[in-house]
Each structure stands twice: as structure tokens, then as C-alpha cells.
Amino acid sequence: MRHCIYPGTFDPITYGHLDVLGRAAKLFDHVTVAVAHNPGKGPLFSAEQRQALVEESIGHLANVSVTTFDGLLVEFALAQKAQAIIRGLRALSDFEFEFNMALMNRHLQPALETIFVMPNEQFSYTSSALVKQVAKYGGDVSHFVPPGVATALRQAYGA
């Protein structure tokens, strides 16, 4: 079975993430969305809340599951028996960071491939950080995130 990991903080998941995920789901028999605990990033939502938001957003993808992880991604991927890691590239500015991360992961685990996937261009400027900023000031984020995520953001910011 061809299995890949789609890791991220997903704080929160956006339509851009879902576009990359949909593309990965066409390429692999199974995709595991791996929600990183990553408290150093100061996420708005807990890992469990982020997992729940992802789960409610992927009902249309039968070959996708969601879990959380902590620690080295390559160790998690090996434990999951994955052959690849999927990373989304929105813009050229993402490439340098992602390229360096892919090289480090290859050094740590040469058998694990990293595959870069570009989302539809309509999502190239969308990021979780920008979505949170818009939501924080009461802006409409419904074009960027699924309805359940928009509701969670309104509740988190008391809007």
C-alpha cells in the first residue's frame, strides 16, 4: 500500500491545505494527516481541537485519516510505515525552508521521500496565520476555511 504523511500544525486547516490533501489522496492509497503538537508555535487551538477540525473537514476523502504526533517527523512516518511526506508549496518563499527540511529528513531517513505539491493558485496567498489575523479582527474567513473552522475561529476570538 502506498502511504504518505501530510504533516503540519493546521492551526487552523484551510482550503489550501485541503486542496493539497485532495491531490495527495489521488496519488496515494492512504494519507495520514499528522497534526503536530508544536507548542513552540503558540497555536490558537490545541492539537486535539485541530485534529477534530481536520476530521470534520475531510469527510469527502475516504482514504484519509487524522492523528496527532510529537517528535521527529521521520520517526513518526517510519512508525506509520509511510513511504513519503507531502508538503505544500504556495509560493517561491516556501521553497527554501521546505527544501532544507526535505534534505534534513532525507539525511535522517534516506528511504523516505518528500513530495512537494502545489495547491490551486487561488490558495497561493492563503495561510493559517493570515486567516487567524483576519478572523481576530472580525473579517469574513468563509472563503478560506471550511464552515466549522470559521465557527471555531469566531468562538476563539469572541466574535
Give a quick rundown of the structure.
This protein has helices at residues 15-27, 47-57, 73-79, 92-108, 128-136, 147-156, and strands spanning 3-8, 30-36, 64-69, 84-88, 113-117. It is of the alpha/beta class.
Secondary-structure class = alpha/beta
Helix content class: 40-55%
Provide the succession of SSEs. EHEHEHEHEHH
Number of helices: 6
Which topology does CATH recognise? Rossmann fold
Strand order of the largest sheet: 3-2-1-4-5
Radius of gyration: 15 Å
- Quickly give the CATH architecture: 3-Layer(aba) Sandwich
How many domain modules? 1
Query: Which stretches are low in confidence, meaning pLDDT under 50 for 5 or more residues running?
Result: none
Instruction: Find the CATH superfamily.
Output: HUPs
Given the C-alpha coordinates, what overall shape results?
Answer: globular
Describe the structure.
By secondary structure, this protein is an alpha/beta fold. It has one domain: HUPs (Rossmann fold), CATH 3.40.50.620. Helix content is 42%, strand content 18%. The protein has helices at residues 15-27, 47-57, 73-79, 92-108, 128-136, 147-156, and strands at 3-8, 30-36, 64-69, 84-88, 113-117. The protein has a five-stranded parallel sheet with strand order 3-2-1-4-5. Strand 2, helix 2 and strand 3 form a beta-alpha-beta unit. The model has no long low-confidence stretch (mean pLDDT 94).
Give the SSE map.
Blueprint: E1 3-8, H1 15-27, E2 30-36, H2 47-57, E3 64-69, H3 73-79, E4 84-88, H4 92-108, E5 113-117, H5 128-136, H6 147-156
Parallel strand pairs: 1-2, 1-4, 2-3, 4-5
